[in-house]
Amino acid sequence: MSEANWYVVHTYSGYENKVKANIEKMIENRKLQDQILEVSVPMSEVIEVKNGVKKRVQKKMFPGYVLLHMVMNDDVWYVVRNTRGVTGFVGPDSKQPVPLTEAEMRSMGIKKDEIQVDFEIGDTVTVVSGVWENTTGVIKQINTHKQIVTINVDMFGRETPVEISFSDVRISK
Hints:
11 strands, five-stranded antiparallel sheet, Alpha-Beta Plaits, alpha+beta, SH3 type barrels, four-stranded antiparallel sheet
């Protein structure tokens, strides 16, 4: 079996979530869970101002595109290519889709460099940069996917959870 890579599928504009749902249903119906590993419509949170009111909303990072983490073969290509709403794979030739490179995946936020940390839940750490610089707290949670730790800090006499990037904390001596 070959290696899974990320591929980009072009869709009709506004149909990204429908295409995602259609592909996920196809995966379930045809038992392709071991070949199509993930279907993604990357979103980013932005602040919109309408009528003077700020509101956080989710916007599609790449309108008209869906990302697929899959093992490419003729069967999977056929299933995805013939999914309702899909206009084709992104690449120089629709017959031979081109996987995304490591650099492209990192720049899109799909794949981040793996960071090894030397702390664990219960360790006392000091924040070395940012708003909470020089604050000491105890790690309550570690999220390796987002590369953040949640620590409790003393704010106004209360323990308050704060999320800090791995790169902004050091173990207290």
